[in-house]
Amino acid sequence: MSSVLSVVRMRKTFGGLVAVNDVSFEVAEGELIGLIGPNGSGKTTMLNLISGALRPTSGEIRLAGARISGLPPERIANEGIARTFQLVRVLSSMTAAENVLAGAAFVGGHAWGGHAQASAYTLLGRVGLAGRENVPVSAMTYIDQKRVELARALAGDPKLLLLDEWLAGLNPSELLIGINLIREIGREGRTIIMVEHVMDAIRTLCTRCVVMDSGVKIADGAAAAVLADPNVIRAYLGDDDA
């Protein structure tokens, strides 16, 4: 399979703090990869570098062979990277459909009008919100707001979807719904990187994991093997519990 994303010796410093330290990895087309590690390991910083929210100190990121590192986030979004956030970000004064239309209008083909609205309705149905297209997002539950954010991210038909703890804050029944939804999207051939602390989701969804600790990549391989790696267990639990 061809490479969708190449991260090459990516480094990000904040003053004297090295948040991402010469990290490299590849993501093949259609992969669903878990980017995992303990709190403060640099995972969200890495997503921010990929999506353009942060500029790298050094290193290179390529999307389908074209360099994107250092481009502004709106350019990177137009090149084909979409993301969700740890804390859901929706346009709360708008309806679900209007949120998705905003994603279609400003990313990808800059679609608008009747075709875009029909596509928005289809995407909302895809994430489980059929019949709720005209409900104000402010009146929706947390998981439904997350669904709107996911549909909006998909509106531009991205080459790469970044999920930053999309399952965080869900109760057990919502978590099952969320895992099934991500699985279905992955089976459609989407290329996905998910940052996640819910290990049951990582085991269920991801065939491969990249593990970071203190800004460094400490493991990269098949999910089952990586999650059983003593170095990974030690990073999560500490030396006394490993």
List keywords for this structure.
242 residues; alpha/beta; four-stranded antiparallel sheet
The gist of it:
The chain has 242 residues and is of the alpha/beta class. The chain contains 9 helices and 10 strands.
How would you describe what is shown here?
By secondary structure, this protein is of the alpha/beta class. 37% of the residues lie in helices and 26% in strands. It has nine helices and ten strands. It has helices spanning 43-51, 73-79, 96-106, 113-126, 142-154, 172-187, 199-205, 223-227, 230-237, and strands at 3-14, 17-28, 32-36, 58-63, 66-67, 81-83, 160-164, 192-195, 208-213, 216-222. The strands form two sheets. The protein has a six-stranded mixed β-sheet with strand order 6-7-8-3-9-10, with helices on both faces. Strands 2-1-4-5 form a four-stranded antiparallel β-sheet, covered by helices on one side. Helix 3 (96-106) packs across helix 4, helix 3 packs parallel to helix 5 and helix 4 packs across helix 5. The relative contact order is 0.17. The mean pLDDT is 89.
